[in-house]
Amino acid sequence: MIGSVEDLLARESIRHTIASYNFAGDSGRIGELAETFTPDGVLELRRADDPDNVDRAVGRSAIVEMLEAFVATGSTQRNTVPGAARYVRHFVTGTHITLGPDHAQAASYFAVLTGHGLDHWGRYRDVLVPFEGQWLLAERSVRVDRQDG
User: Fold this and answer.
1) Is 48 helix (H, G, I), strand (E, B) or coil?
2) H/E element holding 11?
3) Tens digit of each residue's pLDDT (9 = 90 or more) over 99-110
4) Which CATH number is 84's domain given?
5) 92: closest CA among 63, 121, 130?
6) What is the reported pTM?
7) Can you tell me whether residue 62 is helix, strand or coil?
C-alpha cells in the first residue's frame, strides 16, 4: 500500500533530510549538517575499531564541536594519498522508513568513498520528528561496520 499523500510527503521530506546531512558533510559544511537536527537533536557515533565506545553529542552546537574535532583528529588524513583527488562522497541506500503519528524511524546503509577508494561503511538508525514544516533528526545513531585506510 502506498499510503496517503501526507505520508508520501513525509517520506520525501525524510529522504531530503538524510541526503542534506550527507551533502553538507561531504562538502565540509558542518554547521549546515547540524541544521538537519532539531535544536536538541542527538548524534551518536560508533566506530568499527571500538564499537563499545560511543561518541555522543546533544544539540546542534555540540554536534558541530564533535564533528569538527573528529575531522581535526585525522578522519580526513586518510584522504591524503599522494596524487589522489581530495573528496568525500557518502552513498546511502536501502532506506526503510516507518511513520508514526508524531515521529518516524528510518534505517539506512551507507558507504563512503574518498580519493583512495572505499573508506568506510555502516548504517544509520534515525528518529525524525516534524519541526517547523520539515522532518528533522531528533536522534541519529551511526555505526561504522568497517573502516579501511
Assistant:
1) coil
2) helix 5-26
3) 998 999 999 999
4) 3.10.450.50
5) 121
6) 0.89
7) helix
